Amino acid sequence: MSEFSAEVFQNEYLPAGSDTVDAVVTIRSGETGAASAPASMAGRDAVEIIVIDTSGSMSEEGGRKMRGALEATAAAIDTISDGVQFAVIGGNAAAYMIYPNEGLAVADPSTRDQAKSTLRRVRPKGGTAIGTWLRAAGYLASQRPGAIAHTLLLTDGKNQHEDDRTLDAAIAACAGLFQCDARGLGTDWDVNELRKVATALLGTVDIIPRPEDMTAEFTKLTRQAMGKDVGRVLLRLWTPKGSVCEFVKQVSPAVDDLTTKAEPINPLTNDYPLGAWGPGEERDYHVRVRIPVGSVGDERLAGRVMLVVADAEQPAALVRAVWTDDEALSTRINREVAHYTGQAELADAIADGLAARDRGDAATATVKLGRAVQIAHESGNGDTVRLLQKVVDVDDPATGTVRLRREVDRTDEMALDVRSTRTVRVNKQN
Amino acid sequence: MVLPDKAENGREPSDTPQTPDDVVVAAQEVGEATGLTCSACSEDAPEGAKFCEACGQDLDTQPKPICVACGEREVADDGYCHSCGQKQPEERDHHVLVDGRIAAGSDRGRRHHHNEDAFAVANVGTGAVLVVCDGVSSTPGSADASLAAANATRETFLAGLGAADIDSDVVDVEELLVAAVASAQTVTVEVATASGSETRTDPPSSTLVAAFAAPVDAASADSPITITVAWLGDSRAYWLGASSILLTTDHEIGGSLSRWIGADSPDARPETSVVTVDGPGLLVVCSDGLWRYGSEPTELEALVLASISGTQTSPPSAEMVEALLKAANDGGGHDNITVAVWSSTDLGRSTTETPDQQDHPEEVEEGTNE
After folding, report:
1. Which residues of chain B are at the A interface, by a Cβ-Cβ cutoff of 8 Å?
2. Which CATH architecture has domain B92-343?
3. pLDDT for the residue numbered B44
4. What is the pTM for the complete model shown?
């Protein structure tokens, strides 16, 4: 079993009367042997489910979309390690098994070949009902409780054959059953729908602009999933009596607010799901706690961070609060906290800027996207700067002076939207 | 200053050794105070019980300590309360010691996060040596340096006295104190060297005041008292008696120390003074964390008298020292607070006669029978 570790970055010194404690917690999973990722999941209890959109719209572009999706699925099947339980589900207004006929198959050379040959029979037809697809995946995953379950979901359209409530209920029903990476092909899908799916199911969301990009993306995601060797890691956070946990956010590799996912363990302790981990992974979390104010000179624990791996608690990292009237101490800026506070603001500025642009509020959009350029530039988030440059013309990144572009490719706009939460680590500075 | 005498007068120091009866009573009381109590339901349990008869709790599991801040029995192994989060004080944050005619104590204060003050004391015949060091809080490692310096001063001084008859004039106490301070300087530099900080611009450093007081005539209760003091920095010695006086002059220029011990000290030789005063009275040695709340001898005297007035026992006592530390904290606790007090006379102070024991004379009898 991997040994996890946690490290806290904070300025523990608070001015008199202050009640807010910020800390960045870096969590690392242990290295297990040679990090030959695809082999990690072999022999483990793991489930991989591929859900592909086979609705009528997939026949567009002369069938390139459907062909691309099937080729990508075949590549993903080839990436599944021996011994992993897997299935391929087709989705339209309903969900149906492509392979196997029912339940899950165990991956080996012969089942992988059978699965790939079955793909040839798939024909695009019908509507889109993502909630129904998810429930089908959830049903399969529920047959292997305790397994590390991952679903790769592809759609090219909006969830037209279900109302929001049906989708939300399906997402809720699947939470904890599997993790889901959701991908949208082209530009006719709804970023918010897939983001909702990925956020609730501890996965990622992204755009695949062209059909020919799918194989690389499917292969990458399946390989990543095969690399996970520990499922259902929990961050267990104790905070003192009378305190309020303002938020617990993953801030690296991407911003993901976990606050509402808190599962109370006792009145002072909550668990936050961190999903599955591979060896040598490192993620950062920003925790903000408001605690009862102490006297100058007092030291209190504001948080005790533990990790629950395979139902066992692993060592704690301490978030502290020390009240002082020494301004040299209390005004010290912690680099990690400041950096990730900025990265979270960056994500918000992009979301706000794009929303303002959508409703025709050019003034707000210019200010917000300008601010986003400024933060991305300052923090060395080059990928986000490049995405922003496709939506705005940058006159001066240092001051965030930008002009909205009149002609913006829909793909670029959606790419900026889905990737707005990606962060860089503090040491990549400039 | 007239010292209140609260216990029976006329008891000699030789009365203090406990009789066998006293010992038995003390042991019984300890047993009652810490007797088995279930940590889960608070039921009492007989000695040696493994499980609580009321609720079944395993009595072998040590109950957690009680938090100093919220009173919950929730202090975790790492010293933080598992309910309110309060860090429990470390031993050095607040400690008080009573030994013969000496009472001493040190407290972190309200503003500092560590206690860099230290003291070392010893009764020497009918006299005593008191040492207080105030580590400079702006320099890392000063807490270690001050403790090492205080202990070295006391040990070197006591070793110098050796088997010599200190009540005779053969020994030059002043010279011994100067040598003791030199040893304190040596260990302070060693602390710096051990941490690799001796070449820094701010190696660990400390003030130091060491005072030795002894009656001129050990056989006479009314004897005048000779006090020898050696010091560097702004920690002070006072004599509080018929006339109260300050025995030291601060080494300070424009708010900064002008003399101290430490690797960067320009001159670590102490200033010394020798005075003879009329007894009875109290020798008080303290850091600026105390005297800033009562600098003039009359002010410090008032502070000390106030600390005695609320206590049940004769000075110098733990209660008195606690009261002095509290007074400084109530005044703001701006710095670490350290005070060591020696009384020139034994004022019949006795801790064996407590009201509690007088209420249960029959237990003495039971104890004797066992």
Report:
1. 69-70, 78, 80-87, 108-113, 333
2. 4-Layer Sandwich (3.60)
3. 74
4. 0.73
